[in-house]
Specification:
There is one protein chain. The protein is α+β, with helices and mostly antiparallel strands. The chain has a single domain, classed as Nuclear Transport Factor 2, Chain: A, CATH 3.10.450.50. It is about 25% helix and about 50% strand. The chain has a six-stranded mixed sheet with strand order 2-1-6-5-4-3. The longest helix has 22 residues. The protein is globular, with a radius of gyration of 15 Å. The N and C termini lie far apart (about 40 Å).
C-alpha cells in the first residue's frame, strides 16, 4: 500500500517528467498548467511569473526552433505538512533550428518548490541553474 508521503513524491515526480515533453512539443497551455496560477519560472535569472506569462513564453518560441529535454536524478523531499515539497532534477537539453546542423547542448539543474492545490500538485517555483 502506498503511503501519503510516497503518493505525494510520485505525484511531484510525475509533474517533473511531464514538463519536458510539453516544452519540447510547444504545448504552452499544458506546460503553464503544471504551475500554480501565480507560479514562478526562473529561467536563468529571468523571472517569468504566472501561468499567462509562462504560456506566452512557450507560445512565443520562434518557428523552427526545437528542443529535447532529458531529465534525470529526480530528488523529491516532502515537507512534514504533506502539502509542500522541494525537488532537484538534472537536465540535459539539446536545442536547434530546423534545417541547421548546429545543435546547442545545455546542462542545467532544476530547483523546484511544489505545493498541493485543488488541482493537485503544481510547481510554485521552478528555477533553472546552469551546471
Amino acid at each position: 500500500m502506498t503511503t501519503p508521503i510516497e503518493a505525494a513524491r510520485q505525484a511531484c515526480e510525475t509533474l517533473c517528467k511531464a514538463y519536458g515533453p510539453h516544452a519540447d512539443a510547444g504545448e504552452a497551455d499544458a506546460l503553464a498548467n503544471l504551475y500554480t496560477p501565480d507560479g514562478l519560472f526562473d529561467r536563468l535569472g529571468q523571472p517569468i511569473v504566472g501561468r499567462d506569462a509562462i504560456r506566452q513564453v512557450i507560445a512565443g518560441r520562434p518557428s523552427g526552433v526545437w528542443t529535447k529535454h532529458v531529465c534525470s536524478n529526480v530528488r523529491i523531499e516532502i515537507a512534514p505538512d504533506g502539502r509542500t515539497a522541494t525537488g532537484r532534477v538534472d537536465l540535459d537539453m539539446e536545442r536547434g533550428q530546423q534545417g541547421v546542423e548546429k545543435v546547442d547542448r545545455i546542462r542545467a539543474e532544476y530547483f523546484d518548490q511544489f505545493v498541493l492545490t485543488d488541482e493537485g500538485w503544481r510547481f510554485a517555483v521552478r528555477k533553472v541553474v546552469m551546471r
